[in-house]
Amino acid sequence: MEKGKLFVISGPSGVGKGTICNRILEETGMKFSVSMTTRKPRENEEHGVNYFFVTDEEFQKVADEGGFLEYAEVYGNRYGTPIAQTLERLEVGIDVMLDIDIQGAQNVKKIYPDGVFIFVLPPSLEELKNRIVTRGSETEETLKIRLGAAIAELQHAREYDYCIINGDLEEAVAAVKSIWCAEHLRFSEEIFNKIDI
Amino acid sequence: MEKGKLFVISGPSGVGKGTICNRILEETGMKFSVSMTTRKPRENEEHGVNYFFVTDEEFQKVADEGGFLEYAEVYGNRYGTPIAQTLERLEVGIDVMLDIDIQGAQNVKKIYPDGVFIFVLPPSLEELKNRIVTRGSETEETLKIRLGAAIAELQHAREYDYCIINGDLEEAVAAVKSIWCAEHLRFSEEIFNKIDI
Fold first, then answer.
1. Contact B157, A114 (CB under 8 A)
2. Which of B35, B99, B37, B104 is nearest to B70 (CA)?
3. Taking CB atoms and an 8 Å cutoff, what residues of chain A touch B9?
4. What is the pLDDT of residues A41-54, one digit of tens each?
5. In B, which residues are within 8 Å of A157 by CB distance?
6. Is B123 exposed, middle or buried (0-12, 13-18, 19+ CB in 10 A)?
7. Chain A contact set for B119 (CB, 8 A)
8. Percent of chain B, pLDDT > 70?
9. Are A119 and A86 in contact (CB under 8 A)?
10. How distant is the Cα of A77 from the closest Cα of chain B, in angstroms?
11. To the nearest whole number, what is the mean pLDDT of chain B?
12. Nearest chain B Cα to A160, which residue?
């Protein structure tokens, strides 16, 4: 059986990665990895579906055993991508999508260099600002911080295999789908099983 | 300006590369490289459009100067891909397609490793045989030779970046187009000129 492929998407907050990822999952059958988190479940969130909800001790144990592809702390809660679950999915031919930050992607690259790393750029800083403002909940001060962080993050685009500009959503989705198709066309010995020679 | 990309397509004779290439040229604006040949022009063939028609001496001079990306002799006529013309096109942002044999592709890879190398496979040996027979002009003996050569050639698929199976033409064309799109999404410093930061 052909193994699945791991697609890692990063980009500054507000760039619209989430929307792109959801469309790609719908249209390709790719699956998000289910993260482990110490955050309390919200209403409608299901253990093993949205997240694996664990205690701080349980999370730390997995971290200590090197069981995460990457993990991070966000607003006091910890989030991690379990290696075992991801590899199991890839092994049975399921493509897995990780929507993670740059540091997480750097860690994944060390552990799983065969991953396909995609960076999403905004068409302009002005547009990124508009998107962040539209989402609300930013003060003038935090907006400046986020934009500054975004500019710094863009420099890391060169560590990724592919870069797409999310100006038009349909174009961005089509771009990621092209990458997904092309990556499945890379030479692998598996190809000889697909033809009748 | 963003440089063009060089796409090199190989595959056993009869696999349908020509049809795929023509469709790709129509749909992407990619251009065939214009080969130099010692063959006499056929009716309707134009110098500089279909081929650069040259004498044996002129051809040999270019070959001696290392002016070909690759060259080969077919039925007593010589054919070569001029480096200068190909690089000029790439330099001004035109994608170039080379439909060449495995040995030619190996030479191109040495001189221009940034090329994108695509191998086209038949869905089955039976189907390849049918396609060769349909084209006519094969005796039982030459058919056997061509099929034997095809089987040997398939082993070289692993030297290519991508492999596509030409079972259904539309799928094969879509596959090459995905590769073309994805390769243009590879990170290059050029991306920072495309966004307004």
1. no
2. B104
3. none
4. 998 899 988 899 99
5. 187, 191-192
6. middle
7. 187
8. 100
9. no
10. 32
11. 93
12. B187
- What's the ipTM? 0.90
Residue with tokens 């134009």: B46
Helices (H), chain A: 17-28, 56-64, 83-91, 102-111, 125-135, 140-154, 169-184, 191-194
Cβ contact B151–A197 (<8 Å): yes
Q: Which residues of B touch A174 (CB under 8 A)?
A: 181
Write out pLDDT tens, residues A72-85: 998 899 999 999 99
- The CATH homologous superfamily for domain B6-187 is P-loop containing nucleotide triphosphate hydrolases (3.40.50.300)
Token reading at B9: 């397509």
pLDDT of amino acid B184 = 96
pLDDT given for residue A135 in this prediction = 78
Fold of the domain spanning A6-188: Rossmann fold (3.40.50)
Q: Does B161 touch chain A (CB under 8 A)?
A: yes
SS3 A118: strand
pLDDT band at A38 (very low <50, low <70, confident <90, very high): very high
- Is B197 in Cβ contact with A154 (below 8 Å)? yes
Work out whether strand A96-99 and strand A31-32 pair parallel, antiparallel, or are unpaired: parallel
Full-model pTM: 0.91
* Half-sphere exposure for A50 (CA within 13 Å, toward CB): 11
Residue range B121-148: mean pLDDT, rounded: 87
Write the CA distances from B10 to A16, B54, B99, B157, integer angstroms: 39, 25, 6, 9
Quote the minimal CA–CA distance from B131 to chain A in Å: 15
Q: At what angle do helices A140-154 and A125-135 cross, to 10 degrees?
A: 140
| Chain B contact present for A75, CB below 8 A | no
Taking the Cβ of residue A155 and every Cβ of chain B, the question of whether any pair is shorter than 8 Å is answered with no
With CB atoms and an 8 Å threshold, state whether B181 touches A178.
yes
**B182·A187 Cβ contact <8 A:** no
Looking at the complex, does the CB of residue A121 fall below 8 Å from at least one CB of chain B?
yes
Interface check for A197 against chain B (CB to CB < 8 A): the answer is yes
